[in-house]
Protein 1
Amino acid sequence: MQRPSYKFIISGGGTGGHIFPAIAIANCLMKRLGSADILFVGAKGKMEMQKIPAAGYKIEGLWISGLQRKLTLKNLLFPFKVVVSLIKASAILKKFKPDLVIGVGGYASGPLLRMANHKKIPTLIQEQNSFPGITNRLLAAKVDTICVAYDQMDKYFPGDKIVKTGNPVRDELIDVSGLKTEADQYFGLKKKPVVLVVGGSQGALAINKCIEKLVPEIIENDQQLIWQTGSLYYGQALKSQHEFTSEKLKVYKFIDRMDLAYAAADIVISRAGAIAISELCLVKKPVIFIPLPSAAEDHQTKNAEALVKLEAAMIIDEKSIESRLGNTLKNLASNKELQLKLSQNIAKLAIPDASERIVDEVLRILNRKKSL
């Protein structure tokens, strides 16, 4: 059996914001190269250990986690975890012999890429956020290429290594413009304005509580609501659906067809994770961002603020959600001119071929290595 032409390790994870871009890059590598051997390396106990095999790829886990903000047993174990993870990362690299290692952020990418750099294996990191995570900031000096989604990242990274590629997103979200009729049928919608509410992979308790209070007002304003609650709030939200028994209220634990949800929406209320933002740029809808305040280094607020500066979105911090979301939504719904401006400006930021651009950089590094 012929050996695949190239072998890659893709490392990182912890949240969907790291995992789904990693899978998109792997899929693009397979499509472009026709044949490749790809191994993922994640953190034991994190969601990548289930999501990556479900996507059809092999994964190995490192015993690694982040530092807690207060003194805990986990923090005392941290130095031991780092040492053990570096040793295992070295063993994985020695056994698998990758041609190139890709880091997508998250705990596991630190030890793996550190050892890859030590062994002189070519490396690339992909930073999804406008404010980089600490792992990628620490790795930046030694990697070959840094793929980013925002401008002015030379504040954090060496400018000569930066390539603006955008964030990889699911293929089905690249163009939803022709799906409105199918979306209305799928969700059972009438020809009335639609508000879509979605939280991130870490949940949206404050958003859900506020939306529950706003349901009567949204229905009275003759709007329809598609509300993705996540698993923890779903039962509570169903009470609202039963109470109003209105065709205008659609409650879901999770939405499998996000392409149709985006196609149906006139206004979106969302967390401000990097991948959610990249998706929303592609679907070109007016957005009210409510950043997750507990996100690492408050990167969701920084992500959203980057769009607000370009008049491409609106933002409400979670502390103000109860006092501001109702009026903000009502004013936006009644202002077609503002909706159009937000849609046009966010569309300018879309990069639909981000996966292809990242793979271009991977191949450029490999070709440069060949020519040396």
Protein 2
Amino acid sequence: MSNRLALIGFGEAGSTFAVAAGWHEQVSAFDIDPQRKAAMAEAKVINSADARSALTGTSLVLSLVTANQALAAAQEYACFLRPGTIWCDMNSVAPDTKRSAARLIEVAGANYVDVAVLAPVHPARMDVPLLISGGPVEEARIALLAKGFRNVKIVGKDVGRASSIKMIRSVMVKGIEALTDEMMAAAEAAGVAGEVLGSLDSSERNEPWAQRAAYNLERMTTHGTRRAAEMEESAKTLAALGVDPVMTTGTVRRQREAAGRSKAARNAAWA
């Protein structure tokens, strides 16, 4: 089998990798959006007319479609894969979605690897952290490194493990973004943005997340009832300023549910 690489999907990630690594004609690419042809020309990759053409003769495939098309891509294109081809599913989807895609790829005789991209592709580019699990992970790691990726880590043998880390981590990462949006909308409406941000700077603690998580969970268990009541007042404050307290209301529920939970129960659930 050839050592050719195929990209299914040529959006931000695909185009960034292709340009950063200088793959050029070593790569065949296909995207259902015809507007991506210009980006393919700029990256000097082979612009395939269809998925079959892109996948013919390839040994490694990077699936980089939109999340809602990840399973469909595996379903529609598995039949074009040669036996032994490695399909690296780099899409941000749930573990169950990846397990369903894996079954489709493996029935076709190819190999499926779950890949989680743990950071924005800009500015990391080829240094972006990749977690991989399931299928021939060592072979996949070697192949990805050979194509220019520099930060590839095997996290397990089961499909879904890498994506579990990604999806659960996103609860915090994207949640903080949503909380920031809600906080800033209210702070700006109240005319106190500078003071709020300054107060956060003065209270910021630099410590490992394992310690921070343990501290936060203990505070909720011990003081959840009081904190839930406080957050209800915060929700009223936001509503009065014309800001829908979506995230704040969810915090009320989480704090109240944690209140009174024994430390032993919390530790058992977290173990």
